[in-house]
């Protein structure tokens, strides 16, 4: 299966489980991979024949900037729901990075995979 991807989409948001984290905005970085048939899009050579990754990015940024969740897991599930419902994505992998959130670790976060991979 072919896929479209977005790497390290940076968004400032309120996220975290501690009191101090409810007072600030922190940067998260988001990787997306979405199942999409490249041959169909190429044959038409039109963005309407596939998933518009720029439209996806705009929508994800809008959602994440406005969210106020505690866990990176909650953010990932919210994005998955948007990709499924609004963009018709059948298979996806979503990674939320929260770089620098844990002292001594370069990066922490969550990766979820949802949907069925088409052949
Ligand atoms: N499984 C998770 N564990 C933790 C999360 C999280 O979102 N999911 N978050 C935190 C804190 O907010 C941390 O990122 C800030 O230092 C800790 N554990």
UniProtKB/TrEMBL annotation:
Q: What residues form the membrane-spanning segments?
A: none
What Gene3D superfamilies does this protein map onto? 3.30.1130.10
- One Pfam family name from the record? FolB
Give the reaction(s) catalysed. Answer: 7,8-dihydroneopterin = 6-hydroxymethyl-7,8-dihydropterin + glycolaldehyde; 7,8-dihydroneopterin = 7,8-dihydromonapterin
Whether Isomerase counts among this entry's keywords is yes
User: To which pathway does this protein belong?
Assistant: Cofactor biosynthesis; tetrahydrofolate biosynthesis; 2-amino-4-hydroxy-6-hydroxymethyl-7,8-dihydropteridine diphosphate from 7,8-dihydroneopterin triphosphate: step 3/4
- Which segments constitute the Dihydroneopterin aldolase/epimerase domain? 4-114
- EC nos: 4.1.2.25
A molecular function (GO) term: isomerase activity
- Keywords assigned by UniProt, alphabetized: Folate biosynthesis, Isomerase, Lyase
Fetch the CDD domains from UniProt.
Answer: DHNA_DHNTPE (cd00534)
For this record, the Gene Ontology CC terms, alphabetical, are:
cytoplasm
Q: Which GO terms describe its biological process?
A: folic acid biosynthetic process; tetrahydrofolate biosynthetic process
Q: Which InterPro entries match?
A: Dihydroneopterin_aldolase, FolB_dom, GTP-CH-I_C/QueF
UniProt similarity note: Belongs to the DHNA family.
The protein's job, in short, is:
Catalyzes the conversion of 7,8-dihydroneopterin to 6-hydroxymethyl-7,8-dihydropterin.
Name used for this protein in its record = 7,8-dihydroneopterin aldolase
The organism's lineage is: Bacteria, Pseudomonadati, Pseudomonadota, Acidithiobacillia, Acidithiobacillales
């Amino acid at each position: 299966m072919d896929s479209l991807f977005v790497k390290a989409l940076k968004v400032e948001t309120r996220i975290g489980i501690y009191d101090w984290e409810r007072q600030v905005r922190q940067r998260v970085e988001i990787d997306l991979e979405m199942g999409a048939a490249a041959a169909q899009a190429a044959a038409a050579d039109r963005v309407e024949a596939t998933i518009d990754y720029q439209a996806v990015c705009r929508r994800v940024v809008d959602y994440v900037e406005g969210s106020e969740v505690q866990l990176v897991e909650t953010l990932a599930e919210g994005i998955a729901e948007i990709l499924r419902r609004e963009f018709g994505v059948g298979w996806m992998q979503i990674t939320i990075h929260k770089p620098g959130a844990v002292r001594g670790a370069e990066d922490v976060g969550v990766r979820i995979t949802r949907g069925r991979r088409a052949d």
